[in-house]
Amino acid sequence: MTAHQSAAPRVLHVITHLAMGGAENVALGLIDSLRDDIDFALFAVIDHAEPGPVGQAMAARLTDWGVPFAFGTRRGFKSGGVVQAAWRLARMVRRFRPDVIHVHTEIPELTLAIAHVLSPAVRATPILRTVHNSVLWIDWAGIGRWVTRRLAGAQAVAVSRAAADADAAILPGRPRAEVVHNGIVAQAAPAPTPRDPSPLRILFAGRLVHQKGADLLPAILGEAHARTPRRDVAVTIAGSGDLADMVARGVAGIAPGWTIALTGPIANLAARLTDHDIVLLPSRFEGFPLLPAEVLIAGVPLVTTIAPGLDELLPADYPFHAASGDVATLGRLLARVIDDLPAARAVAAGQGRVIATRFDPVVMAAAYRDRYRLPLAPPPAA
């Protein structure tokens, strides 16, 4: 260990942005859990000019904890933003002098790899990678191989077996990432509501992108609407992303009698899940399905898919999941839950109790604490 590590290890988290995201929640959760034992700082690659309520809440938490944080760029990556972010990351490494750089997901890894080329201080610092997804470097395969070679000596952790498999496939021959499941802190399931609510509230929450199945929402909602007689239904689609306009056009008029509203991401979502009666998450793939787990721990019925990552959370006989992309079955299952909410709540509560036991946040935090304290070697220059 280095001399300045005598009191507590110093760890710099590198994330994409202060905004909705599983990796961002993991990074802040680790900071919260371990800040009495570890000195943390955080670097967000993308600096949103107008941060939403989620980003504002994250920044407020970091400030309250006394954790320094900085941003990389407001430019687009193709117009030089990635290089600007890499220089700023290198500067933060020189100033904070971390014992470990803990990097999360592809955009931060690309930024770190470029900083690794530019900065002797970055090259001298051990790196811990957490692989958060089961499909990696979408449309960036060549860049992904270069980044992976550049950071090949870093220690790697994956949030699921599917994520470890995806990481191993990029550059065979490296040590396989060890699986450390994300811990889940969520609200316990409340007592069942004595009667069906009116209106019945359905929530989709997540990035409006292909991975999350946002493009499937109009067809799923239309199918469910056709299969249930209930018309006192209020649907909230909470998120932002490239498919927002397409989703808005697709749901317009799709379910007469239902209210469908598109909103921004919901701050402190885990604490707000019980404001809704059903959560619909038609993901095509996940790394670790944190939100689905939080939903079930909260006792809220979940309609979702049998997708990579999700298949490690839910048992094969879970009654409310369908094959990825199967909009007809997802719509049918959503209608089934709408029509028998008490039974679906009982299923959710039972699954939630099992999940809360399996994914203990104390276990996750201890696993990372051990890695932060190891005298890790810096990755060799590629």
The count of β-strands is 13
CATH architecture of the largest domain: 3-Layer(aba) Sandwich
Tell me the number of structural domains.
2
Major sheet summary line: 7 strands, parallel
Distance between the termini: 24 Å
User: How would you sum up the global shape?
Assistant: globular
Q: How would you spell out the order of helices and strands?
A: EHEHEHEHHEHEHEEHEHEEHEEHHH
CATH homologous superfamily descriptor of the largest domain: Glycogen Phosphorylase B
Q: How many alpha or pi helices?
A: 13
What's the gyration radius in Å?
A: 21 Å
| Neighbour order of strands in the largest sheet | 3-2-1-4-5-6-7
pLDDT < 50 stretches: 1-6
CATH fold field value of the largest domain: Rossmann fold
For the record, what CATH class of the largest domain applies?
Answer: Alpha Beta
Going by helix content, strand content and strand pairing, the class is alpha/beta
As a percent range, the share of strand residues is: 15-25%
Helix content: 25-40%
Mean pLDDT: 91
